[in-house]
Amino acid sequence: MLLNTYEPWKFAFSATTDFENIKKDSYGIIGVPFDSTSSYHSGSRLGPIVVREASYGFERYNVNFKSNLDTTFYDFGDVNVVPGNCEATCKIVEDTANELIDLDVKPITIGGEHSASIGVIKALSEKYDKLTVVHMDAHRDLAFDFIGEKYSHATVMRRAHEFGVDLVQIGIRSSSADEEEFVKSTYNIQTFKTRDVHRHMDAVEYYLTTVDTPVYLSVDMDVLSPAIAPAVGNPTSGGLFTYEIEDVIKSLSFKEVVGLDVVETATNKLGENTAVSAAKIIYDFLSLI
Q: Does residue 122 sit within a domain?
């Protein structure tokens, strides 16, 4: 068993975990049931459970993509988090991601709050000489600190940028003046705001085809319209539609995608809209990659 994990549930179609015979270049799911820095709606610590449960509503054949979910992947259970201590939890997630990397397994993280991504991105940024993070979110998450804390759901992509990654931010519709100034001061942050996606999805898809580094995809569920995914940590009016996330995943399916996270599902209700949508993102990803 991986360091600091336990197994409350398994994502549908996951392979039997046999550490003596783990398939190389496969994917591995870990859950991060942590929401101690949530600033509006808490509850995303239950995300890993409800997202896994929602995955049992899908067939192996993906109608939209006309493909079977034949990708080999494992579900290694949940990380043992440290409630109230974001930095310590991020370090545990980083250590767990490194264990997956040592097994030649690419991480898929179910959150939990978005801070869970910090540890995974740090581990991958140290493995690859160059890494591009495609970040789908209503918010930039580029604050240097949030209420004095450097490790927070609001600082995730600032920490990632400090690790040396390139950022492609898709679906942005909420930001601070400081974050906007920071973006202007850098050369390696590309932005497609919500209206850009709605009106010029072809430009988004074209840009993704030009990315020539390994890619990590990070999806905060609040990137979707609250009409589709209402149970998130920080719901924001407007937002993307499910098919637009499908289009992004399809564009990235031609790239070397080395990890995924789907975070900020904040509900304790089985079958809730947000959980079903989050499970579908993972399902679509595994159906195409």
A: yes
Taking Cα atoms as reference points, which of 60, 55, 129 lies closest to residue 279?
A: 55
Write the CA distances from 8 to 36, 50, 79, integer angstroms.
Answer: 20, 11, 11
Give residue 155's domain range.
Answer: 5-12+25-288
Cβ distance 8 to 78 under 8 Å? yes
Q: For residue range 139-174, what is the model confidence (pLDDT) as tens digits? A: 999 998 787 778 888 899 999 999 999 999 999 999
Answer whether 144's CB lies under 8 Å from 176's CB.
no
Q: Report yes or no on 202 lying in a domain.
A: yes
pLDDT in tens, 31-67: 999 998 777 778 899 999 999 999 999 999 999 999 9
The first and second tokens of residue 170, run together, are 């898709």
Residue 264, SS3 per DSSP: coil
Provide the domain count of the chain: 1
| 42 part of a folded domain | yes
pTM for the whole structure: 0.95
Distance between CA 284 and CA 250 in Å, rounded? Answer: 9
The domain that holds 254 is classified in CATH as 3.40.800.10
- Kindly report the length of the chain: 289
